[in-house]
Amino acid sequence: MSKLLAVGTVAFDAIETPFGKTDKILGGSGTFVGLAAAQFGVHTGVVSVVGGDFPKEYLEMMNSKGINTDGVEIVENGKTFFWSGKYHNDMNSRDTLVTELNVLADFTPVVPESFKDADIVMLGNLHPSTQMSVLDQMNQKPKLAILDTMNFWMDSALEDLHKVLKRIDVITINDEEARQLSGEYSLVNAAKKIHEMGPKYVVIKKGEHGALLFNNGKMFFAPALPLAEVFDPTGAGDTFAGGFAGYLAKTEDISFENLKNAIIYGSNLASFCVEKFGTQRMEELSGDEVKERLGAFKELTQFDIKLS
Predict the structure, then answer these.
(1) Using one digit for the tens of pLDDT, what is the confidence trace for 61-74?
(2) Residue 171 DSSP symbol
C-alpha cells in the first residue's frame, strides 16, 4: 500500500457557532488530513510543529489511529499555533477573531527519512516556499503531489505560489480562491487557466454545494450530502482532502476515473466532520458508519434515464 505524507498545521482552535462555543480544542489541517486518511488504513505520516503546551495525549491519539507523528517537531519553550473564529448563522461565512502563529512563524518542515519515498504528498495550506521545501526533500518525485492553498498566499506570495504550482499534480481550492487565482468568474474557465499554471487536476470545493474535478476538458461533479444539522464546518475542507488523498493511497490508482471515486470518499468523510466540534466526530468514526453513508451518497446521485 502507498505511503501518504501530509504536511500542515497541528494546532489549537477555539470555535463559536450558532450551536455553541469551545475553549481551545485540537485542530489544524495536518490533524484533519491524518484522521481522514486513517479511515483507509494507509501508512500516513504528518509533518508539522507544536509548542511545549501541546498535550502529549493528542499525539498519542493520532498514533493510536495509525498516524506517524515522527515529523511533528516539538518546540518545548514555544506555543502552539492558535486560531479562533466565529461562524455566522448560514455557517458558510465566518470571522477570524484571533490568529497566533507562535511556533509556526519559524517552521521549517523536516521530512522523516521513512517518508521521503512517499507515493502521495498532501501539501496543506502553508506558505508556498514551505510547500516547495517539502518537495525538495523527497528522494524522488511523488506519484501524486496535492496542494491546498488560500487567498492569503495569493495576496502575499503569488510568485512563490506560481513556482510550486508548476511542480504539483492536483490543486484543491474553493470557488472564491479559484476565481481570484485565475481572474475568471466562470469556474470552467478558471479551471482551464489554473491547469495552464501546472496542475493536471483542479479540484474546486464549493462547501455545502459539493466539489468539482477538472482534467484536460473533462469534468466531474460530486454533491455534498444534505445534512439536517451542521455544528462546526472547521476542518471540513482538510477532511475532504485527507479522504481524497487517503483513498488514492489505498487504491494506488491515479486515473481520472479513480479520482472521481476519491472525490466522493472525501465528500463522504467531510459530511461527518461537521457533525461535532473540532476533531471529535472524526476520532470516533467507525468504518461501518462510513460505508452506510456511502450508500446514501450513491442513492443521492444515481439515476436511470432513457436517452431517446
Answers:
(1) 999 999 999 999 99
(2) E
